[in-house]
Design a protein that fits this description.
Blueprint (H helix, E strand, L loop, with lengths): L5 E4 L3 H13 L5 E4 L2 H10 L4 E5 L7 H8 L5 E6 L4 H8 L5 E4 L4 H18 E6 L2 E6 L3 E7 L2 E6 L3 E5 L2 H7 L6 E5 L2 E4 L5 E2 L3 E4 L2 E4 L9
Parallel strand pairs: 1-2, 1-3, 3-4, 4-5
Antiparallel strand pairs: 6-7, 8-9, 8-12, 9-10, 11-12, 13-14, 14-15
C-alpha cells in the first residue's frame, strides 16, 4: 500500500518538510502537507487522506485534537507531539488515534507507526481499483459479494462496484475476523448483516439472497 494517501498537518514548516522527505525515502509518494487548521479541514475534504500525521499543538493551541475529531472517515491519525503533558495526552488519546510520535521525529519510528496502521487497515478493509480510483471499504460496509463469471459485484447499502476477479480468489483475501460466509456458489455475504434465514434464502434486511443447499449447513 505504498500509494496510500498521507496528510502531514504540522505548523513548523521545517519539521513538516523533514517528515515529507522521510516518507519519500520510505517509498510513499501520495503525500500532502498543510500548516494550519483551516487548510487541514479543506485538505481532509478534498484529498481524503488515509493516514494523517497530526501535530497536536498547531500554532500554540491544541487544535490538532479538535481536527482529529473532524477527520474524514477514511483517515487514521498518528499524533505528533513534543510535549509530555499527561492531561493533554489523555485528551488526545480520547480521540482514539492509532499511534503517536514524539519529536524529534525519527525515520524508524515513522516507518513502524505507518506500517502498523497499514496492517490494521488491511485486516479491517477491502481495497480495489474502480477505474483509475483506489476505493477502500471497511468490511462492515459491505453487504455481500456476487460472482458473475470472472467478475464480482461488491454491494454496499448505497453503492455497487464491479471488479475483475473470481470468487474463489476473493474468499482467500477476506480475513476470518471480517465474518463473511459463502452461502451459494455465486454469493458471499456479511454474516453480521443477516436478519433472517429461510430454507432457500437469507435476508439482509429487504435484500433476499439465494441459499445453496450445499452451503446451508454452514449457517
Amino acid at each position: 500500500m505504498k500509494n496510500i494517501k498521507i496528510l502531514i498537518v504540522e505548523d513548523e514548516v521545517i519539521i513538516a518538510e523533514y517528515i515529507f522527505d522521510l516518507l519519500r525515502e520510505l517509498g510513499f509518494d501520495t503525500i500532502e502537507m498543510v500548516h494550519e487548521h483551516i487548510e487541514a479541514l479543506k485538505m481532509m475534504e478534498l484529498f481524503k487522506p488515509e493516514i494523517i500525521l497530526m501535530d497536536i499543538n498547531l500554532n500554540g493551541f491544541n487544535s490538532g485534537i479538535d481536527l482529529a475529531k473532524e477527520k474524514n472517515k477514511e483517515a487514521n491519525v498518528i499524533f505528533l507531539t513534543s510535549q509530555y503533558d499527561y492531561e493533554l495526552m489523555n485528551k488526545a488519546l480520547a480521540t482514539n488515534p492509532d499511534s503517536y510520535l514524539t519529536k524529534p521525529i525519527k525515520k524508524h519510528d515513522v516507518s513502524a507507526a505507518i506500517n502498523l496502521v497499514i496492517l490494521k487497515k488491511e485486516s479491517h478493509a477491502f481495497s480495489f481499483k474502480n477505474g483509475h480510483e483506489l476505493v477502500t471499504l471497511n468490511y462492515s460496509e459491505i453487504q455481500y459479494f456476487k460472482s458473475d463469471g470472472n467478475y464480482i459485484d461488491i454491494h454496499t447499502k448505497e453503492n455497487k462496484y464491479s471488479i475483475r476477479q473470481t470468487l474463489g480468489n476473493l474468499i482467500k483475501q477476506i480475513p476470518e475476523a471480517a465474518n463473511f460466509i459463502r452461502i451459494h456458489k455465486s454469493y458471499v455475504v456479511n454474516k453480521n448483516l443477516i436478519s433472517k434465514k429461510t430454507v432457500n434464502s437469507v435476508f439482509l434486511d429487504d435484500t433476499e439472497i439465494p441459499l445453496g443447499r450445499a452451503f446451508s449447513k454452514l449457517l
